[in-house]
Amino acid sequence: MTGALIVEADGGSRGNPGVAAGGAVVIDPATGSVLSELGVYVGIASNNVAEYNGMIAGLQAALERDPSEVHVRMDSKLVVEQMTGRWKIKHPDMQMLARRAQDLIAGRTVTFEWVPRADNKLADAAANESMDAQASFRRDLHAPQAAVAAPEAAGGDLLL
């Protein structure tokens, strides 16, 4: 694969806090094809907690495919600014989620970009699908490298 895999991530909460889920898609930068779609049902939580969960699920799926470089696109200015270190993380729940994300990407090339909500429709749809079903899901349209090499490594709990 050439270039950084793209992760588009989003989160939503109906009530804030309310029924919440994160969503993500992993995109092949060469073709623009969606490689994976993920929904992470969080339960009752804030929108920001859902955003972090969507990003983490997308990062995990992307890093299974190609651990060398990932570019994350989100419409959450808060998460993007916190993950780049430009804004402090004050809320304990988000501190924990940010640490989880930072541990996941440690030593890797991962960049973050804020995008307008209109440019994040696929991840938003995944988050809404997960909220509607009140369940997590993962659809891999092409098997990740890690799953081909070691099927048992591809399993795991998406609830973060």
What does this structure look like?
There is one protein chain. Helices cover 39% and strands 30% of the residues. The protein has 160 residues and is α/β, with parallel strands linked by helices. It has a single domain (5-137), classed as Ribonuclease H-like superfamily/Ribonuclease H (Nucleotidyltransferase, domain 5, 2-Layer Sandwich). The chain is globular and about 40 Å long. The two termini are 28 Å apart. The relative contact order is 0.23. Mean pLDDT is 90; it is low at 146-160.
SSE blueprint:
Elements: E1 5-14, E2 18-27, E3 34-45, H1 47-65, E4 69-74, H2 77-83, H3 92-105, E5 109-114, H4 121-133, E6 137-140, H5 145-149, H6 151-154
Parallel strand pairs: 1-4, 4-5
Antiparallel strand pairs: 1-2, 2-3, 3-6
Helix pairs in contact: 1-3
